[in-house]
């Protein structure tokens, strides 16, 4: 017992069905500590703050002295 369509659907009907299938731009919020844009409900990757509290300690990369070269 197959479930094949009995009749062909028009292109307009196909377009109406596919009109709701689209990509959405993700929303962003501003970090309250460092003012960078972050995804909502996530820890900031720049400073490690979430909801006004430091949750993750972020290591700062060491700056090499150019005078040694």
Note the topology.
Layout: H1 11-18, E1 29-30, E2 37-38, E3 49-50, E4 53-54
Antiparallel strand pairs: 1-2, 3-4
Summary tags:
little secondary structure, two-stranded antiparallel ribbon, 1 helix, 4 strands, elongated
Structure description:
- With 69 residues, the protein is largely without helices or strands.
- It has a domain of 32 residues.
- The protein has one helix and four strands; from the N terminus they run H-E-E-E-E.
- The strands form two sheets. Strands 1-2 form a two-stranded antiparallel sheet. It has a two-stranded antiparallel sheet with strand order 3-4.
- Strand 1 and strand 2 form a beta hairpin.
- It is elongated.
Summarize the structure.
This protein has one helix and four strands. By secondary structure, the protein is mostly loops. A hairpin with a 6-residue loop joins strand 1 and strand 2 (37-38).
Question: Could you say which overall geometry the principal axes of the C-alpha atoms support?
Answer: elongated
Largest sheet: 2 strands, antiparallel
Strand order in the sheet with the most strands: 1-2
**What integer value in Å does the Rg equal?**
25 Å
Number of strands: 4
| Low-pLDDT windows of residues | none
């Amino acid at each position: 017992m197959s479930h094949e369509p009995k009749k062909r659907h028009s292109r307009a009907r196909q377009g109406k069905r596919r009109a709701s299938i689209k990509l959405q731009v993700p929303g962003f919020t501003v970090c309250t500590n460092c003012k960078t844009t972050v995804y909502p409900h996530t820890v900031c990757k720049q400073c490690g703050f979430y909801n006004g509290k430091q949750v993750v300690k972020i290591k700062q990369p060491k700056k090499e002295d150019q005078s040694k070269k």
